[in-house]
Amino acid sequence: MTTKTAWITGxxxxxxxxxVERFVAGGWRVIAxxxxxxxLQQLVNRHGAGQVHAxxxxxxxxxxxxxAIDTLPEGFAGIDLLVNNAGLALGTATAQQASLAQxxxxxDTNVTALVTLTHLLLPRxxxxxxxxxxISSISGSYPYRGxxxxxxxxxxxxxxxxxxxVDLHGSGVRVxxxxxxxxxxxxxxxxxxxxxxxSDQLYAGAHPITAADIADTLWWIANLPPHLDVTRLEIMxxxxxxxxxxxxxxx
Length: 251
Description:
By secondary structure, the protein is an alpha/beta fold.
């Protein structure tokens, strides 16, 4: 069998790092992209340059992204799966108190960078009748206080995935929107500027989703028969469910 190749963004931690490990263990080649070259190099050192190719760049830098694509080694040039995992939430403040700079960074990373890489890789994915897995979030479906722009970006990812699938109808390319709930990774540390206490309190006793859970889910989706497409997949820990609506009452 021909070895398949996956491009996994945000591969330096969390879902991305776990997904690299899962796909390499399954015999795939992996293009691991992210900003932190030292972490990417650790993946290459552990698995070998023939199995993992490190593409170090900031997803918001389109020129660097194009250069990474143009300089892919021959063995990694054919893309069978794109996992759009890179993304972030910044801040927990309400809209009226939030940082505009953080809003723009979330949009630039979660939306603009995702659609840019997808557009650039579409010809290769169509040629290989490949698949696209976009990591969205339940935040795109269920609003919560302080979710504002982060939730908006994830709603975009979900809707973009569905429209992308319609446009690719007949091409053989599969598209999936994966929408996790509470997951314990570096997510909350990034969101709170490194507040370990806040992270620990959020996940304490909740038995949240793990990075390995999402990696296993991606592996299952990628290896389904080619005539099947999981279009949307919402995943929550058993301990989590959608909250009720809030009501403000005059005194």
